[in-house]
Amino acid sequence: MFKNFDKVFGFTFKNQTNTKSYKSMTIIVSILLIALPIVIMYFASRSSDEEEKGIQDSGVSAVYVVNKDAPDADFNLLNYLGVEYYDDIKYINYDSVDEALRVAKNSPDVLVLEFTREDGSIFSNLIVPEGTVIDKEHAGFFNDFLDENENYVTIIASGIPMQNLAQMGMPTNSDIYSASGYEKGESLSEDKQASENLMADSIKPIFNYIIIFVTIMILYFVILMYGNSISMHVVMEKESKLMDTMLVSVHPEALVFGKMLGVLAGGLLQLACWAVCLVIGLVVGTKVVESTGGSLGLVSFFKNMSDMGLFSAVNVILAIIVVLFGVLLYSSLSCLAGAISNNREEAASNNGIFILVLVISFYLVFFVAMGSGNVQAPTWMLFVPPVAAMILPSMLLLGTVSTFTGALAVLVLVATSVALTIIAGKLYKMMSLYKGNSVKIGKALKMLFSKT
Length: 452
Hints:
Blueprint: H1 5-17, H2 20-52, E1 62-67, E2 90-94, H3 97-104, E3 110-118, E4 121-127, H4 136-148, H5 150-157, H6 165-168, H7 179-184, H8 192-239, H9 243-246, H10 252-291, H11 297-303, H12 313-339, H13 344-350, H14 352-369, H15 379-382, H16 385-398, H17 403-431, H18 441-449
Parallel strand pairs: 1-2, 1-3
Antiparallel strand pairs: 3-4
């Protein structure tokens, strides 16, 4: 039955992987999947570190204030806020912007701050005098200080008497404790592991969405691309009239299985290569962030994945099996279309059933599973093979289904995939020497299961 299957498989696999486009795409995407996570994680950690540093030094020693609605307002009270770099600045009131700018010409590190009132709102304009050493960037730092303390600035600019404003500006120290940490008097900022767990928990909901979305999109495009390729390969000998010659040395079922699995092996090899490169990129990116002393919630998340029940060894193995047999299931549908076709035009037409099932499954997963607030697929979706092929891998990786339920769903998927593959092989055998009118899938299945 499977005589010379290995030769058909080897020939198809070689043709699939030996093309320039296949090699180029594999190499380019692999490089991107290694490099992008490293670059993104590095710059994200740098950006996070910059935000944690707070407001930077503007280099300003004095600010000339023009506030016609409250000319006696004392902005020196801002020094009592205790903000680093901004607790020793002289604020001097002037009657007009022109006067302030004229005086500022003799001072290299001075800014002019104007307040105006319009429609019940207070607006501020920060002016950099000519000849000052304060550039746009450092003026922006001072503006950040004003934005950070907008409430205090507005109160002072409004002219409301605030005798105790200094007390309002007293810093309030706050901290976060876990229940056990509070009893010990140890805050999360002091307990590094607890702090990392908190950061990891905050990343998990976002990560769940990303994993599901990426899994759906990858499987959808891989199945679409290689499914069409399978149907074209299967019909190739019929179209070129080589079928009669080839069937002398190759059994029809061996021919169709060899072609289908040859194309699939090429696609899965490419997919596995990309997955390995992505993991390498994430691991190296994590090491780079840690070696540079940076901090990133994603790094904490990766370090705590096992504690959150993600990517357990058993579930990873089950997820790989689902991917393999899920792709096989859709490939069998595409193979059915090629088996009953005599040329590529008929194959493209008959392939509609494969496309229809793929699209319906895609939208069910996209809108039902991802549309729910907890990105949890209904149980019935796990036992409908075409839908399970897309959603089950991510559910297993995320640990949102039990291992027992996942294993049952995998068994249903594997059984369905094997059954469809056998049916595809029998149909190809039955139709290999068929010379009548073109046959649609419905009629072919009736012929296959008829007793006559």
